[in-house]
Write a structure and sequence with these properties.
Elements (H helix, E strand, L loop, with lengths): L2 E5 L6 E6 L2 E6 L5 H8 L21 H15 L2 H17 L6 H29 L17
Antiparallel strand pairs: 1-2, 2-3
Helix pairs in contact: 2-4, 3-4
């Protein structure tokens, strides 16, 4: 009997095993007979114990990077809030810098800061998409993105 096995989850609760060319999803549970066969082997059939390979996360794709960038932007600025920001920006532009109140000027600063952050996320997304090897750990790890 030929067996190969790899943990399929980072928490090692499940494995993917190939037993004589047939793939199985097997819970990493000592009560499961397939799991026992994999880790203990079977003397009756001459099957040796199998070392289970560690979990290997799937490679990061450009779509993963785009999805994470979009998720981060929407988490900080949901669609409804972005629409309000656009409406405020248009209104404030129509008023003109010379005619705005101090409160309105403060809102302009806030909008510019928000747009600066969104731009930084988009720039970083473009960098990561162009060179996926720049991704450190999981694409969702904060160290890959501006604060």
């Amino acid at each position: 009997m030929n067996i190969t096995a790899t943990y399929s989850t980072p928490d090692h609760t499940s494995i993917v095993a190939e037993i004589d060319g047939i793939s199985f999803a097997v819970p990493a549970d000592p009560a499961n007979r397939h799991f026992r066969l994999i880790v203990d082997g079977d003397a009756a059939t001459g099957t040796a114990p199998t070392v289970i390979a560690p979990y290997a996360p799937p490679p990061v794709t450009v779509d993963d990077v785009k999805e994470e960038a979009g998720r981060r932007i929407l988490e900080r600025y949901p669609d409804w809030y972005q629409r309000n920001m656009i409406a405020d920006a248009v209104t404030l532009a129509e008023i003109g810098a010379a005619n705005r109140t101090a409160e309105q000027n403060a809102r302009v600063v806030e909008l510019n800061s928000a747009w600066g952050w969104v731009t930084a996320v988009r720039v970083r997304s473009n960098e990561l998409e162009a060179n996926l090897s720049l991704v450190q750990g999981a694409v969702s790890d904060d160290l890959n993105w501006p604060g």
